[in-house]
């Protein structure tokens, strides 16, 4: 492939580089946003020189906030000028960035540029399979877009580390590490498939609207000899079992069960299947079974998924809506991937109550776990301990 052909298959995404997100007086200003502006401008210039398609991903919200995530809808209405309202100065690109005729502008209303937009169709139609990502902010819109691109099997993804930013350098670095880990085939703990068990709690009237999600508690993820073992997984098994016991009256179980040849697996780890290999969580294998102590009972509902989020290309949302459920409680592994992707999709889908039980979820290290819990708290997710949840909520 020539250099020219390579660039024709590449797109530069510039995410949320708008006045309200970057300027000092912006109502949703990202602290690190202004500092990366020169690098974003330079990335755009390089893309133009190479003939790379530039996609400007922006938010443009309804003045009354009717298309905004539920957790920040209070910023709109009653005479308030909410962030990035369509047609406002705050929604315009920050000074130094200009949309040109050959560029493409994509409006989104949630974190990921792929969520309920036509971005994937646009990229497929243009023959693009390589993405370069810039903008703000790393733990939310950048990361959600990247994980959705991984789930959609884009073979080449690059995040320019000094042209993306978060509220603090520590948050930025932690999220960059997590994104690197889902593209690194040698880092077993984080290049993971993440199954899910989801159990509905119906102990009292308010629990008729609550579901407990138990994520990735399968043998291949928890046992010492598991193909994709999560280091912190074994330690939380007792708390996950306890949470299930609290929520036992109704249940949905969501798990990964892959094709033996890996034809339904993310592209970046498809090499783990084929040539006689028994890949992780292959349907019917011991590795796909729930870890000891967790059992599917009559009345549970099993939902199989093949990507990080329990909502991605599954009918989970329809199942929950049909059951009148609007409150989610989440446990399992691992925090930076399936836990987080499921949580952010739930927030994007406007579930009014989302809780992650901090001592019934785990990651490869305590530091990775804590950094991701912090990011989820920042989008309105509650993070009780098992004791707090079972005693105060149950």
Automatic annotation (TrEMBL):
SUPFAM superfamilies: Isochorismatase-like hydrolases. Residues 10-181, 210-382 form the Isochorismatase-like domain. It holds the Pfam family Isochorismatase. InterPro entries: Isochorismatase-like_dom (IPR000868), Isochorismatase-like_sf (IPR036380). Signal peptide: none annotated. It comes from the Eukaryota. Belongs to the isochorismatase family. PANTHER family: OS02G0276400 PROTEIN. This is Isochorismatase-like domain-containing protein. It comes from Cannabis sativa.
């Amino acid at each position: 492939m020539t250099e020219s052909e390579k660039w024709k298959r590449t797109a530069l995404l510039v995410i949320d580089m708008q006045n309200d997100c970057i300027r000092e007086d912006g109502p949703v200003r990202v602290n690190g946003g202004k500092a990366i502006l020169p690098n974003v401008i330079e990335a755009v210039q390089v893309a133009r020189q190479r003939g790379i398609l530039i996609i400007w991903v922006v938010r443009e919200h309804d003045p009354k906030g009717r298309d905004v995530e539920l957790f920040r809808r209070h910023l709109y209405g009653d005479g308030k000028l909410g962030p990035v309202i369509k047609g406002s100065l705050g929604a315009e690109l920050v000074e130094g960035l200009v949309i040109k005729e050959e560029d493409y502008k994509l409006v989104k209303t949630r974190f990921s540029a792929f969520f309920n937009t036509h971005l994937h169709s646009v990229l497929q139609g243009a023959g693009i399979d390589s993405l370069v990502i810039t903008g703000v902010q790393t733990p939310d819109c950048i990361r959600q877009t990247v994980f959705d691109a991984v789930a959609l099997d884009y073979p080449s993804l690059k995040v320019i580390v000094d042209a993306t930013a978060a509220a603090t350098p520590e948050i930025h670095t932690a999220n960059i590490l997590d994104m690197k880990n889902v593209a690194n085939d040698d880092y077993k703990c984080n290049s993971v498939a993440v199954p899910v068990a989801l159990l509905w709690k119906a102990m009292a009237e308010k629990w008729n609207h609550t579901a407990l999600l138990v994520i990735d508690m399968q043998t291949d993820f928890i046992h010492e000899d598991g193909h994709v073992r999560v280091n912190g997984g074994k330690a939380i098994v007792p708390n996950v079992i306890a949470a299930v016991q609290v929520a036992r009256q109704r249940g949905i179980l969501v798990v990964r069960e892959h094709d033996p040849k890996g034809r339904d697996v993310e592209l970046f780890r498809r090499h783990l299947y084929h040539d006689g290999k028994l890949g992780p969580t292959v349907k019917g294998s011991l590795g796909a079974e729930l870890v000891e102590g967790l059992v599917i009972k009559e009345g549970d509902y099993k939902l199989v998924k093949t990507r990080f989020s329990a909502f991605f290309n599954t009918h989970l949302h329809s199942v929950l809506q049909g059951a009148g459920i609007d409150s989610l409680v989440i446990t399992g592994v691992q925090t930076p991937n399936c836990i987080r992707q499921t949580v952010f999709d739930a927030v994007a889908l406007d579930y009014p109550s989302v809780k992650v039980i901090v001592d019934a979820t785990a990651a490869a290290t305590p530091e990775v776990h804590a950094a991701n819990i912090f990011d989820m708290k920042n989008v309105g997710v509650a993070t009780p301990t098992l004791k707090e949840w079972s005693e105060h909520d149950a």
